[in-house]
Design a protein that fits this description.
- The structure is a single chain.
- The protein has a five-stranded mixed β-sheet with strand order 1-2-4-6-9, with no helix packed on it. A five-stranded mixed β-sheet has the order 11-19-18-14-15, covered by helices on one side.
- By secondary structure, the chain is of the alpha+beta class.
- It has helices at residues 110-117, 122-126, 241-244, 253-262, 270-281, 285-294, and strands spanning 4-12, 18-26, 38-45, 52-55, 67-69, 73-76, 83-87, 90-94, 101-102, 133-134, 157-159, 161-163, 166-168, 176-182, 190-195, 199-201, 205-207, 210-217, 223-231, 299-300.
- Helix 4 (253-262) packs antiparallel against helix 5 and helix 5 runs antiparallel to helix 6.
- A hairpin with a 5-residue loop joins strand 18 and strand 19.
- The chain is elongated.
Length: 305
């Protein structure tokens, strides 16, 4: 036997006014099933009580819960009202013609695939990232040769403007000398001596569009270099809609944007992604982990939908 219960949910009306909306909740058959993870939530409702029915699929659901769970069914009975929901990271407005609507976990979207590629998804963690990434090398090798894995592609591109470049390399014996050159100039834009670690942050430089090179030399005169191209912000790929609409705090949007850039065009924007991730590394453990993996030559690979 089914029971009808009333719950009060505070929502924001789609017409940008705030009010309290009463939902008619039709509870499912009583059972002992444990409450699953929510797949979304009700964001706003302009429907009066008698025209909006929420039938719960799980008996353990709290009756004042605005979360939507797998199998919950939303029904609108009035053509003049709508309800706004978020499933995963996708916003959707439901009207009479869209219901009854059954909440299902978002599948085949960019965010889950991106999390997997970055090694942040559950599946990637359980499988050792074996399907979502390409493997790099260990960060600290014993070779005397100096290599810069984050600049291993001659076509690497970053956004121009005043910025502090972060760089990391493998091999060699410190202390190191680092120089930033622009093609066709007779002297470096900046140089740094006595760098002890195999990573550094260069001072702020106004990077104009063009070709650049970073050169590194160790105390034994072993050297390595990597090139990159500075482009305008309009030359960077536009963010997909799902990333632009992303509003969750964990993982932060900036980390996802950088991870997405790193997956594009065979690693063309890895150096730009590295700059963005490095700025988050001190406050976000996942960003720091990804930063260190990029320094080894690791590249995230976005699986097809």
């Amino acid at each position: 036997m089914r029971r009808k219960l009333r719950i009060t949910l505070a929502h924001t009306f789609l017409a940008c006014s705030t009010a309290t909306s009463i939902l008619m909740v039709e509870a499912g058959v009583a059972g002992t099933d444990s409450l699953p993870q929510p797949v979304g939530r009700i964001i706003g409702s302009g429907c009066p009580e008698k025209h909006l029915v929420l039938k719960r699929a799980h008996s353990g659901t709290r009756q004042n819960d605005s979360q939507l769970y797998e199998g919950d069914e939303v029904t609108i009975t009035d053509a003049n009202c709508t309800i706004e929901i978020r499933i995963g990271n996708t916003l959707r407005v439901l009207s009479l013609k869209d219901t009854p609507y059954t909440a299902r976990i978002a599948t085949g979207t960019l965010i889950p695939r991106l999390l997997f590629a970055m090694g942040l998804g559950k599946g990637a963690t359980e499988k050792g990232h074996s399907q979502g990434i390409s493997q790099g090398h260990t960060r600290d090798g014993e070779s005397n040769e100096i290599s810069i894995p984050i600049l291993e592609l001659w076509s690497s591109q970053i956004e121009g403007g005043p910025r502090r470049l972060r760089i990391a390399w493998q091999g060699g014996e410190g202390p190191f000398q680092i120089a930033l050159w622009r093609t066709n100039l007779a002297s470096p834009l900046a140089s740094y001596d006595n760098v002890v670690e195999n990573y550094a942050t260069l001072g702020e430089t106004d990077l104009k569009p063009g070709a650049y090179q970073i050169r590194i030399k160790d105390r034994l005169n072993h050297s390595g270099a990597g090139t990159f191209k500075v482009v305008s912000s309009s030359d960077l790929p536009p963010l997909p809609t799902e990333l632009r609409q992303y509003q969750e705090e964990d993982p932060p949007k900036g980390l996802l944007e950088a991870g997405w850039l790193a997956t594009l065009e065979g690693g063309k924007f890895v150096f730009e992604a590295y700059q963005r991730i490095s700025s988050l590394a001190s406050i976000n453990p996942e960003a720091n982990e990804m930063k260190e993996r990029l320094e080894t030559g690791w590249r995230p690979r976005l699986l097809k939908n």
